[in-house]
Structures are given as structure tokens and as C-alpha cells.
Design a protein that fits this description.
Elements (H helix, E strand, L loop, with lengths): L2 H6 E5 L7 H13 L6 H9 L9 E7 L2 E12 L6 E10 L8 H15 L4 E6 L3 H6 L3 E10 L2 E12 L1
Antiparallel strand pairs: 1-2, 2-3, 3-4, 5-7, 6-7
Helix pairs in contact: 2-3
């Protein structure tokens, strides 16, 4: 990524850019919510529940010239490897024309800063196919986790960023 991307791309709270909510809903539905059998209404409710700036859940949006090009969220979720809950980076998505240009990295870095600002003690994530990307950003694999998806199991890497 060159500086041109950094100069053109800003990361902000989705709460400050509500006009971008439909794009974020579409992206998350296409990538994940459909697999979880979310209706359109459930997807909208899930994203709108993340329109926070001072607490979790929180969604960030990447913007280029004021248009949404990517997103990432911070949520509290069930811990897949032990009892209790865990704070997670989730829903990291970058629109196809902006991939491989540093936008995902910017979203992840901002999410880590937001977690620190909110005094979140540590972050985790699950990824099916982006483990090398997150490892380059300082995430460490804890274990592999299997989740049922119909008649088969899907495997994910459970990773953490460590103490914030």
C-alpha cells in the first residue's frame, strides 16, 4: 500500500455515518449473516446494535472520498474455547476494489486502538482463511476450533492480540 491509500482512506465510527449502514449490512450478510440464517431485518438490527462510540458492540467504517469501502466490529461474544465471554474483532470486510491496498490493516489497527481506549483487556478473533493476514498484524493463534455447519464441520483459527 502506498501513501495514496492512507491519504484517501479514513476510519470512523459507523454511528457517525449512518448512511453507510445499508452497505455494511449487505457486506456482512453476503459474507457471514446468510450462513447464520439471519433475515434482512435481523442483519439490520445486528448492525444497528453496533452503532456505539463509547462502548461495545461498536462498528467502524472505512471511507474513501466519503463512500464506505470496508468495515470492522468489536463485540463481546461467547468464548469458543472456554467458559465465559471474550471480546472479539469481527466482521472485517473490505470491498473488492480496495483489497490488497492496506484498508483491512487500517481497520484492524483502529479496532485495536478503540479496544485499548475502552480498556478492553484483550481481543480475540476467529478466521477461516485469513490467518496469515492477522499474524502479520501481530495476532497469535491459540488453537483451531470446529463448528458444525449442517452435516459437516468448519474449522477456524482462534487468535488473540493479547492484553490491550
Amino acid at each position: 500500500m502506498g501513501n495514496a491509500c492512507r491519504d484517501r482512506v479514513t476510519i470512523d465510527y459507523l454511528a457517525h455515518h449512518r448512511a453507510a449502514v445499508p452497505a455494511v449490512v449487505d457486506w456482512l450478510s453476503e459474507q457471514w449473516f446468510r450462513d447464520w440464517h439471519f433475515s434482512r431485518r435481523q442483519a439490520i438490527d445486528e448492525v444497528c446494535g453496533r452503532l456505539n462510540v463509547s462502548c461495545l458492540p461498536m462498528t467502524l467504517v472505512a471511507l474513501a472520498d466519503g463512500k464506505p469501502i470496508g468495515t470492522a466490529s468489536l463485540v463481546e461474544d461467547d468464548n469458543p474455547v472456554s467458559w465465559g465471554s471474550v471480546y472479539c474483532l469481527t466482521g472485517v470486510y473490505v470491498a473488492a476494489p480496495w483489497r490488497q491496498r492496506g484498508v483491512g490493516r487500517l481497520l484492524c489497527q483502529r479496532a485495536v486502538l478503540e479496544a485499548r481506549r475502552l480498556r478492553v483487556p484483550g481481543l480475540a478473533l476467529l478466521t477461516k482463511d485469513c490467518e496469515p493476514f492477522y499474524a502479520r498484524l501481530g495476532w497469535h493463534k491459540v488453537t483451531d476450533v470446529a463448528f458444525p455447519n449442517g452435516p459437516r464441520l468448519e474449522f477456524f483459527a482462534f487468535m488473540n492480540f493479547g492484553a490491550g
